Amino acid sequence: MTQRSIGIAGSTSAETVRRIAPLVEAAGYRTLWVNDTPGGDALAALAVAAEVTSTLRLGAGVIPLDRQSGAEIADRVHDLPTERVHVGVGSGQAKRGLALLERGVAELREGCDAPVFIGALGPRARALAARIADGILFNWLTPATAADAMARLREDAGERRAEGVLYARSIASPEARPALAAEAARYASFPQYAANFDRLGIDPMDTTIDLTVPGSVEAFGVVDELVLRVVTATGAEDELVRLLHAGAPTRS
Q: Strand 135-139 and strand 225-230: pairing?
């Protein structure tokens, strides 16, 4: 059964994280994932979330290893409830990305007990993740390409247990569709994502979820965990807080 989670931007204010995290926990979602960006620190946000929750899993996805080494990340994880933390890492802009990932994961394994996930777009990074990580953080996949990615993950992992976690941009109202389209266009402008969309032959909008359409979430039930990154009409933090208060995005 696919577990459902919520994803928020790393730039979300500490005040809003304190409001959102208990709502996510009370609603029964599996994990609160926080992405790490130049303007947002995922581990700092998770520290705030840890203060106001007790059972919610806390995920960082993904921290670029060209900005923080695996050893540095492990040191910071010690300040969090390690039994609830899941650390997602990526290669960032590094030219020798696979070597950096392998070294970073080894440092994390040595420095902390938190499960390690790798954010991977291409087949080589995914094969490496299946071999050395606890799972893969997928992004911008259609239901069909997600099913293909999960089948390959199972094949590459063999007898190892490796989870497939898919991060999906979502909307909870028609008014948010222009903002969703803008987000898709922004990612399509990044060379690495554009190349991946071309390789898979998909339109980024086909990877998104309209939560008002029956069955739209269930179509992505091929992965182990589905992370709903809800895009709101204005991007205001209070919009997501109101949605969670109202019970949307839905878990049903």
A: unpaired
Taking alpha carbons only, the member of 182, 94, 212, 200 closest to residue 140 is 200
Helical ranges in 78-141 per DSSP H: 97-111, 123-132
CATH topology of domain 3-243: TIM Barrel (3.20.20)
CA–CA separation, 161 vs 153, rounded Å?
A: 10
Alpha-carbon span 106 to 86, nearest angstrom:
15
How far is the C-alpha of 192 from the C-alpha of 173, rounded, in Å? 30
pTM value is 0.96
Tokens of 149: 């990615």
Pairing assessment for the beta strands 209-210 and 163-171 based on DSSP bridges: parallel
161-214 pLDDT, tens digit per residue, is: 999 999 999 999 999 999 999 999 999 999 999 999 999 999 999 999 999 999
Please give the Cα distance from 20 to 23 (Å, whole number). 5
Residue corresponding to tokens 């577990």: 3
- Please tell me the distance from the alpha carbon of residue 43 to that of residue 10, in angstroms, as a whole number: 9
The amino acid occupying position 127 is A
Is 105:86 a contact under the CB 8 Å cutoff? no
Distance from chain centroid for Cα 3: 13
Backbone phi and psi for residue 206, each to the nearest 5 degrees, phi listed first: -75, -10
Whole-Å CA distances, 53 to 11, 90, 135, 207:
20, 27, 24, 31
Q: Which amino acid type is present at position 225?
A: E
Tokens describing residue 102: 């392998």
The DSSP 8-state label assigned to residue 173 in this structure reads S
- Count of Cβ atoms closer than 10 Å to residue 175 Cβ: 12
**52, two tokens:** 């106001």
Contact 143, 164 (CB under 8 A): no
